[in-house]
């Protein structure tokens, strides 16, 4: 039961991070097309890449916790 709870919370964090990444991607794309502020574009790009990396790590953690949960609970 513990791994089911762990998987649920990691899954929720993963979904939140992917949705956040999508909004950050949209913000980055719109800013890149509309404004010529290089510092703002660089800052948005760094944030977008950071959240993208976090999403990948959370996906791996979600998959691992799911596999452990299935191994232990059948």
Structure description:
By secondary structure, the protein is mainly alpha-helical. 93% of the residues lie in helices and 0% in strands. The chain contains two helices and no strands. Helix 1 packs antiparallel against helix 2. It starts with a helix and ends with a helix.
Q: What topology emerges from the helices and strands here?
A:
Blueprint: H1 2-34, H2 38-73
Any descriptors?
mainly alpha, 2 helices, about 70 residues
Characterize this entry briefly.
This protein has helices spanning 2-34, 38-73. By secondary structure, it is mostly helical.
Briefly note the structural class of the backbone: mainly alpha
Helix proportion range: over 70%
Rg, alpha carbons: 17 Å
**Overall pLDDT level:** 94
Distance between the termini: 11 Å
Largest sheet: none
Number of strands: 0
Query: Helix count?
Result: 2
Shape: rod-shaped
Low-confidence stretches: none
Beta-strand share of residues: under 5%
Order of helices and strands: HH
């Amino acid at each position: 039961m513990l791994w089911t709870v762990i998987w649920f919370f990691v899954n929720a964090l993963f979904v939140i991070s992917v949705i956040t990444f999508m909004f950050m991607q949209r913000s980055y794309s719109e800013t890149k097309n509309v404004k010529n502020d290089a510092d703002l574009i660089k800052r948005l790009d760094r944030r977008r890449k950071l959240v993208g990396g976090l999403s990948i790590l959370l996906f791996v953690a979600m998959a691992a916790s799911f596999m452990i949960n299935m191994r232990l609970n059948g």
